[in-house]
Amino acid sequence: MQNAARESLPQCQALKVLGPAGLKASLASMLLIRAFEERVDQLYLAGRTRGTLHLSIGQEATNVGALHALRAGDRFFSHHRGHGHALAWTDDPRRAMADILGKSGGFCEGFGGTMHMADVKSGFLGGNGIVAGGLPLSTGVGLAIQLRAEDAVCLVLFGDGAANEGALHEALNMASIWQLPVIYICENNSYAMSTPVNRSINVETISSRATAYGFPGFTIDGNDFLEVFDCVHAAASRARKGGGPTLVEALTYRIKGHSRSDRQAYRSREEVRRWQEPDRDPLLRLEATLLHAGIVDEEELSAMRLRASDRVDDAVAWAEAAPAPDPSGLLDHVYA
Amino acid sequence: MQNAARESLPQCQALKVLGPAGLKASLASMLLIRAFEERVDQLYLAGRTRGTLHLSIGQEATNVGALHALRAGDRFFSHHRGHGHALAWTDDPRRAMADILGKSGGFCEGFGGTMHMADVKSGFLGGNGIVAGGLPLSTGVGLAIQLRAEDAVCLVLFGDGAANEGALHEALNMASIWQLPVIYICENNSYAMSTPVNRSINVETISSRATAYGFPGFTIDGNDFLEVFDCVHAAASRARKGGGPTLVEALTYRIKGHSRSDRQAYRSREEVRRWQEPDRDPLLRLEATLLHAGIVDEEELSAMRLRASDRVDDAVAWAEAAPAPDPSGLLDHVYA
Amino acid sequence: MRELSYREALNEALVQAMDADPDVILIGEDIGTYGGAFGVTRGLLDRFGTGRVIDTPISEAGITGACVGAAISGLRPVGDMQFSDFITLGMEQLVLQGARMRTMFAGQVKVPLVMRLPGGAGTGAAAQHSGSYENWFVHVPGLKVVMPASAYDAKGLLLAAIDDDNPVIFCEHKLLYNTRGHVPEEAYREPLGVSRVWRRGRDLTLVATSMMVALALEAADQLAGEGIDVEVIDPRTLRPLDETPIVESVIRTGRLLVVHEAVETGGFGGEVVARVVASEAFDYLDAPPLRLAGKDVPVPQSEVLEAAAIPQFRDIVRDARKLARNEV
Amino acid sequence: MRELSYREALNEALVQAMDADPDVILIGEDIGTYGGAFGVTRGLLDRFGTGRVIDTPISEAGITGACVGAAISGLRPVGDMQFSDFITLGMEQLVLQGARMRTMFAGQVKVPLVMRLPGGAGTGAAAQHSGSYENWFVHVPGLKVVMPASAYDAKGLLLAAIDDDNPVIFCEHKLLYNTRGHVPEEAYREPLGVSRVWRRGRDLTLVATSMMVALALEAADQLAGEGIDVEVIDPRTLRPLDETPIVESVIRTGRLLVVHEAVETGGFGGEVVARVVASEAFDYLDAPPLRLAGKDVPVPQSEVLEAAAIPQFRDIVRDARKLARNEV
Ligand SMILES: Cc1ncc(C[n+]2csc(CCOP(=O)(O)OP(=O)(O)O)c2C)c(N)n1
Ligand SMILES: Cc1ncc(C[n+]2csc(CCOP(=O)(O)OP(=O)(O)O)c2C)c(N)n1
Ligand SMILES: [Mg+2]
Ligand SMILES: [Mg+2]
User: Fold this and answer.
1) Could you say which residues from 265 to 284 on chain D have a Cβ atom under 8 Å away from some Cβ of chain C?
2) Among A140, A213, C7, C296, which residue carries the largest CB count within 10 Å?
3) CB distance C64–A166 less than 8 Å?
4) C126 CB near a chain D CB, below 8 Å?
5) Is residue B336 included in any domain, yes or no?
6) Is 0.90 exceeded by the ipTM?
């Protein structure tokens, strides 16, 4: 993987669609995710979180690239490693932090926590604790969009490990025979918990599975924001025109352990370090591209980094000040 | 589909492995299945069966070709349309008929009936009422064979409709990464109940799905006994040598309705008739080949047909004379 | 009075719901040309087209997920599981997604779906096509569970289930499809969460569900001839359970027998008994509350074995008589 | 006396079973290098190799089917569901295949498998990772259901479950993994189907399972100080249920409280109550038999909400006290 996009930015759909300001907003989103996740990691180490935690560090280009390629009216499903998706879509670190700290005022008011953020009105149909759990759901959303002839798409994110669930098979097949406007993004971050992807599948690419259902699949550099954006944007345009589903496999890497309990015996520190180098780290790569293109300068970049960190400070303070959920509301949402 | 095999019999593995006597035995098995199923159909129409019924008529070449390519020590899983498999393997129409008539003395003693015949000691691991239900099970049998380094394979039969269950995906993937000695036979008989195969998948062949998992898949003429035999035999040889799984899609046709309740509004009589012509009917085709090769003559053929019909008469008489299951044994098999 | 079969009543409910609301769609295997495995959706494809009567591949997790996804998008899908047993393939989508999403997201979504489960034994369909799983769903907060025992209730409850904004498990019984009864033409609703008292009686309260209701009523007739006056109550909705009429009845009769087809152990009968004995009816009990239910065995295929596994008319008569006569 | 944690006790049971019998194999996600999501299989890959400690892709139906297929081939697989909730993806293979195959085939097969389900709430894992599903399995003939509450029982019952020739659902609790207790070194078995009376008492019978056992014992201690003498019984095996000690106890105490973490409606408590009131203990009941169980809501993530959803020590004390004092 090289930073091919760096040279080809002028040809990128991302530049045309987002413009320089939009590109900066996307970079800001990636910076926010990184700062947010690093803070969450500290909060965990300080014993201030509860339950599990799956961090997005290293996957920001896919998180933001995929979601910023959508537009208002579109919908998406996230998964268990979804802080990045929540932030890329809502740009609301306060609410996300409130969820993580189990407070009121977040997306899910103490009911859902880290894996179940959702902002349904805006089209964010939620995280999921069940690997591949969003895949069958996206079929129904795609159907609804199609039946109502809406000009919208549904995107569903999942991991490389999720690609081995039967749910994938059923969802991809149904989307293909009905030509649903669904975009499947496999965030292949090289591991499912302790299982390297080459121990769980016996083919070169996960995207090749799409061909077994009769629709296009692409394997792309998931740490290249521009490549992710362009690929997803093209898939969405096709889907809006009735062109049916697309499977996108975005190659990326999980920098942190799988979750709280991970001793990471299955990989070397050296391997992790390699993915943090400037030619691989998704933030450093987009920064370099935007600098090279003159869209940002070093000063602005510093300001952006500072702003990301400030917003995270604010989010933590806000969430810590928020009240705990009121147990008297325990049964409020079981039935409509 | 033409009767290519007719000319190429001398090159067929089937002739080498089975010899002329074996080929005759296979034809006899196909004749038995046909006669048996036609009788079962009559018994149903006369109100003498209970529950559902799925007949194998038209699929005899796949039934017998696949199972006669196995050998002692091998195992297989059948499915809901499994009378043909039971007969091809056990050559025991009495027990099969007893199961269908809900009598004692059959394979499953009144507990299982038409969909749940099994003769576990011989390697017949049972029919299944759940579409694709045998697929995950075959993974476990394949694992057991592999762990014990047995010189055996496990074969699992399923329909075209079953190919859309998530179970297929999980089973094929696991077999591929572990290189299990499992052979997957998809009896593509053109319909799943009322659903034509081209309405439930969006690719040309079901066998192509194997490539998405990284092992060979073949689409063959499932009404050509010799082609089925040779393909399965080769797959079994490969599997025995540690070569891993194979997916075989055998193109065939279900001549009768799906089950008792089928009004067959989804297809034309003409279509059914075409599949009964001499160039398609699996019995007529194997008969013609063996006649042409001088392995049987017309007289012997007539005798074989008569014998099939006699054996079915005998099976019906035997099963009707058998006692009903004793309800005092109701709870005998719930726990070991 | 117009009579319809249970099958026709369900069909009419679907037609009326779909006529009234374009958001009502059907999703399932062979529900189009074939008309559903039990003929319940016959004619609907012609009337409403492939956009609203959606024939699927054999993919039960996919079907369940499609229903949940469509429901949170504002549609009102009615899923068809073909046989109740196949929901074992959709449990994750139904239970972990459909039933929990509203709570997990603190009320941000509604999940208005109906999943039809044709269940029950008695047809010789054997262990994988004869199941009664209703108590699994009773045990899942977020779901409602409905189980109509007559053509009249089939229509009224299905219309109410489709109106409901929650995921409703709708348990039909294969042997009921051909049973007939009075069914008004208009699109009436029978509210969820209301038990039906089929028959008043002073000596014993018989709570029965689904297929067992008709047998219970027959048994009550026979026992009336013996001077035993049986009250028969059908909860109709198992979750939420309207226990008041049951408790009131037991206060009057002092005796309770719960009859269902599902196997006894871990079944719905335990829930009814536990609620009754925890209620004020406890002080009025003259005899131990009893259950009569399916034997603890996978449903066998052959007639004699199957009949031995499932409560029969004579079993109900026997147990009710014993209970009424204090012979337990 | 040697002490081990519940986790270590399970690990030791696996080691001893695998040492003794080459047919015992483990199948599940991340059970190798990772040592299992809760560390129960730590060290086993090194000891027994990849042929017997089989890390799988994320394919729960596949895992369940692999266990059933291996079991009918003469192996004794121990499956690991990572979280109990994920068995929702394997219900068809477990219930329709594994539990029923022996009966459908009239006894031709044995299905000796153990499926380990780490379940329960209390860790802030939210609605899809905190479930207690034991009563679903209690409702399935062909399965056995085991639920150890202590390190000692964890080891003894797991060894017995592996010995058993039937499919056994082995319900562990995440909050118990770190609890410690006396665990002998030898490979002892605790027989399936035998309740454990943890504490004798005259005033009230408290039946508790899993995590609730320790809370019940604490509550009994506290109540003893108030002059209320509580008997605490842990069924340990929920199916088959050894009800005799419970019935005998209620005959002595006249009062029954069943406590479990799973939601109340449709839960195992109903089964216990129904059995007790149908028994000779009926005549000895001095108060309505009661249940105390999880609230009917998907388990929430945050601490206060989660605590409100699950029975707490103080809830047990409160309900037991009320019952003992006839305040219900
Ligand atoms: C159905 C199911 N099985 C297993 C798990 C436990 N689990 C949570 S995340 C995970 C690994 C997922 O891997 P992948 O899909 O690659 O996503 P990643 O964690 O790498 O982002 C596993 C096994 C789960 N949550 N759901
Ligand atoms: C899981 C499951 N879903 C649905 C059914 C109902 N059913 C029985 S056979 C069948 C069609 C199967 O089609 P196919 O696999 O092509 O086999 P064929 O009947 O054509 O031999 C269906 C839908 C079932 N038995 N199991
Ligand atoms: Mg991954
Ligand atoms: Mg077919």
Assistant:
1) 265-271, 273-274, 277-279, 282
2) A140
3) no
4) yes
5) no
6) yes
Whose atoms come closest to the Cα of B85: which ligand? 2
C-alpha A197 to ligand 3 mean position (Å): 8
* A251 in any annotated domain: yes
- The answer as to CATH 3.40.50.920 being correct for domain D196-324 is yes
Ligand 1 centroid, distance to A164 Cα (angstroms) = 10
Q: Domain span at residue A145? A: 9-320
Asked if residue D296 lies in contact with residue C138, where contact means CB atoms within 8 angstroms, the answer is no
- Using the beta-carbon criterion (under 8 Å), do B166 and A169 form an inter-chain contact? yes
Looking at the domain assignment, is residue B1 inside a domain?
A: no
Chain CA centroid to CA B73, Å: 18
A193 lines ligand 1 (CB under 6 A): yes
Tens-digit pLDDT profile for chain C (328 aa)?
899 999 999 999 999 999 999 999 999 999 999 999 999 999 999 999 999 999 999 999 999 999 999 999 999 999 999 999 999 999 999 999 999 999 999 999 999 999 999 999 999 999 999 999 999 999 999 999 999 999 999 999 999 999 999 999 999 999 999 999 999 999 999 999 999 999 999 999 999 999 999 999 999 999 999 999 999 999 999 999 999 999 999 999 999 999 999 999 999 999 999 999 999 999 999 999 999 999 999 999 999 999 999 999 999 999 999 999 999 8
pTM higher than the cut 0.90: yes
Residue ID of nearest Cα to ligand 1 atom 3: A131
Per the listing, tokens 């044994």 go with: B329
**Do the two domains C3-182 and C196-324 of this chain adopt the same fold?**
yes
Overall domain count for chain B:
1
Is residue A228 in contact with ligand 1, taking CB distance under 6 Å? no
The DSSP bridge partners found for residue B242 are: none
What ranges do the domains of chain C cover? 3-182, 196-324
- D149 vs D23: CA distance, rounded Å: 27
Q: How far from D294 is each of A113, C98, D136, CA to CA, in Å?
A: 20, 20, 15
Identify residue B183 by its one-letter amino acid code: I
C129 belongs to the catalytic site = yes
Alpha-carbon span C127 to C298, nearest angstrom = 5
Domain topology for C3-182: Rossmann fold (3.40.50)
The amino acid at D120: G
Residue A56 included in any domain: yes
Report CA torsion sign: B169, B171, B175, B178: positive
C260 catalytic per annotation: no
